[in-house]
Amino acid sequence: MSSSAPRQPLDRERVLEAAATLADEVGLEATSMRRVADALGVTAMALYKHIANREELIDGMLDKLVASFEAPADGVTWQQALRAAISSARATMSAHPWAQAAIETRATASPTVLAYMDSLMAIMFDGGLSADLVHHAMHALSTRMWGITRDVLPTPAVPEDPDLRARAMSEFAVAYPAIVRMATTAPGAGVACDGDAEFAFALDILIDGFTRLHEQEWTSRP
């Protein structure tokens, strides 16, 4: 008689868990159906009984993450609830670097994704915001509602060699004095930037802005 433990049956949940674990290790681009099958010790064909293709695989992985976002506590202001919901999204997405690429490459929103977006709108509606303001607020939140941001056109890397670095910084200061002033005098600028603090700063500005416009009974129509 064999003493080995019986193999756990393969199902959709096991496939998605294995795929997410693999993506944590190798990134989303390298997470293929074949590699997921290898991680599970099955053939690639075995996966297709549960997942139709790689796009469905990524959709399922993302849905599991979004479904794990924590709901805000009861009895808080709509501003606190919105901030808490998005902060939970950031904490979850940050723990899985592949999640940003997954969000940015989806062609359509799944029911799970739509439910999360609906929950954010519901928070603002419960706070009394108009449909007009909620519409514009969702556009303003953009990728931040998922707890992510994308820096566009980062500044050039500084040379390793001290002499070349000094020369480059001198030339840069002449050509772009405002950039150099900010980078060399602002606390935490440059390589020491705190991504979480920068995200919270931008989110606070947005929520404060929504609040001010709501109090002023803002409308997009003249």
Overview of the structural elements:
- By secondary structure, the protein is mainly α.
- 62% of the residues lie in helices and 0% in strands.
- The chain contains eleven helices and no strands.
- The protein has helices spanning 12-26, 33-40, 44-47, 54-67, 78-94, 98-105, 111-126, 131-141, 162-175, 177-185, 195-215.
- Helix 5 (78-94) packs antiparallel against helix 7 (111-126), helix 5 runs antiparallel to helix 11 and helix 8 packs antiparallel against helix 11 (195-215).
- The longest helix is centred in the last third of the chain and has 21 residues, at 195-215.
- It is flat, with a radius of gyration of 23 Å.
- The protein starts with 11 loop residues before the first helix and ends in a 7-residue tail after the last helix.
- The model has no long low-confidence stretch (mean pLDDT 90).
**Run of helices and strands:** HHHHHHHHHHH
Q: Per DSSP, what share of the residues sits in E-state strands of 2 or more residues?
A: under 5%
Class by helix and strand content? mainly alpha
Q: How many distinct beta strands?
A: 0
Mean of all residue-level pLDDT scores: 90
Tally of alpha and pi helices: 11
Question: What is the terminal-to-terminal distance?
Answer: 82 Å
List the SSEs and their pairings:
Blueprint: H1 12-26, H2 33-40, H3 44-47, H4 54-67, H5 78-94, H6 98-105, H7 111-126, H8 131-141, H9 162-175, H10 177-185, H11 195-215
Structure, briefly:
The protein is mainly alpha-helical and 222 residues long.
Short key terms for the protein model shown above:
single chain; 222 residues; mainly alpha
